[in-house]
User: Fold Bile acid:sodium symporter from Hydrogenophaga electricum.
Amino acid sequence: MARSRFLPDNFTLTLVGMVVLASVLPVSGVMARVFDGLTTAAITLLFFLHGARLSREAVLAGITHWRLHLLVLASTFVLFPLLGLALQPVLSPLLPAGLFVGVLYLCVLPSTVQSSIALTSMARGNIPAAVCSASASTLLGVFITPLLVNLVVVPGGNAGASLDSIGRIFLQLLAPFVAGHLLRPWIGGFVKRHATMLKLVDQGSIVLVVYTAFSAAVIEGLWRNVSLVTLLALLFICALLLTVVLSVTTWVARRRGFSTEDEITIVFCGSKKSLASGAPMAKVLFAAPQVGAILLPVMLFHQMQLMVCALLAQRYARRPQVAAPVVAEATTRAVS
Assistant:
């Protein structure tokens, strides 16, 4: 019997299952470290395979696609903070001070890397541009986020951030991507013939990220530290922010004449906020007793963006396989 088109696809149901599993049986202790290792390995393999799959022309096209990168950075570091400030008159009376600061902190964080690229790949978007844009967002966020914390979140405060994240980005993401690309003459054919393997790694990495991140949130007291009303208010705020940014990035991408492949990259890279970057930076930027409440909006938004964008990626992926426009010609050559 055929599944109704109104029902979620298997991947979305899997993500919902991971949230439920993490709520009932969150991974902790030694097993948490094991799952963290598996997640890191899956992400590293994902970037290695992408490097082996992409042609030199596609990589160069991704690096030089400056209009796309500027739009993604503007969404991440301009549009989001402006939305946070615009909501301040409404949110300030409704939320406890720590949670309100958390919403503003969410708005100044950099984009994610692994999920942005994995979702772009699932949706058959411009993967080289996604690699460059998401990585640049995270690298620049090390410097821009503390500055925006002083300007937007806690005006006049003292902000500093560890640069260890830069080393992690190079070792976990860029190094395997470069290694895979250098080995492309020898393994590129194998990767092309086993395209299903790349899809499994894409989806598997997202499933692991959802389970480990939500497990950490549950262990930190996600379901016991806030009232149901407050939690629903936060969910609504996160949904509002995500809806506005997804709508704006989609509209601007189409208005400015970007290809569908570029639109996918702009939408997914420009709408994400990184829990992986936000958690360690919060420990440096804020006093220890504040960190839990400040990170709660980030954790909720992180889960929501994965769920919504996974569904959106599946919708993009169902479009017919047709020749890409000229602006995405390099991406077409990369996967041909």
Notes: The chain has one domain: 30-318. Residues 30-318 form a domain with the Na+/H+ antiporter like fold fold (CATH 1.20.1530.20). Confidence is low (pLDDT under 50) at residues 158-162, 324-336. DSSP finds 15 helices and no strands in the chain.
